[in-house]
Design goal:
This protein is α+β, with helices and mostly antiparallel strands. It has a single domain, classed as Lipoprotein localisation LolA/LolB/LppX (outer membrane lipoprotein receptor (LolB), chain A). 22% of the residues lie in helices and 44% in strands. An 11-stranded antiparallel beta sheet has the order 6-5-4-3-2-1-11-10-9-8-7. A hairpin with a 2-residue loop joins strand 5 and strand 6. The chain is globular and about 35 Å long. The relative contact order is 0.13.
Amino acid sequence: MQKFFILWVSFLPLIIGGCTAKHYTISEPKVIVLKTPKIKFADTGYFRYDKDAVEVELFTAGTSVEKISIDDKVCLRAGCMDEGEFVKEYLYEGYPRDTLRRILQNEPIFGGINVSESCGGVIFQNIRNDEMDIMYRRAQGSIYFKDRLNGLTIKINDLDTNQSR
């Protein structure tokens, strides 16, 4: 019996280790605005990422109110779901499954269609059809995504960028 207990205790760190929080290489405070059918938020937050894993932790009055983690799945406090399911439920069903991940990683969306760059280094992407009217702008320290037809807005700005405006 004692051998079984010692064996079980020696595997306990491995069992618990599977549930530990992911360690991100970059963690930055941001001013975040999210307006989707299911999420309404405008305040500060932390933006964390490491390769393909992204996490946004949202704060109101210094208290964490929501955490959105995208790795193999998209996880919120309510639970985890497939990335495609999340996009359909929280954004818009006509978007590609990696839309939110690519916005948070400051990358082109929709396979990079209609991308243009201004002389100041700001990258624009406009996507218009019967289902969506998207304006996506990316600059140093600033991300802006708006779909007028579907009522979606995502703004992410560095704290110092936001304060100087």
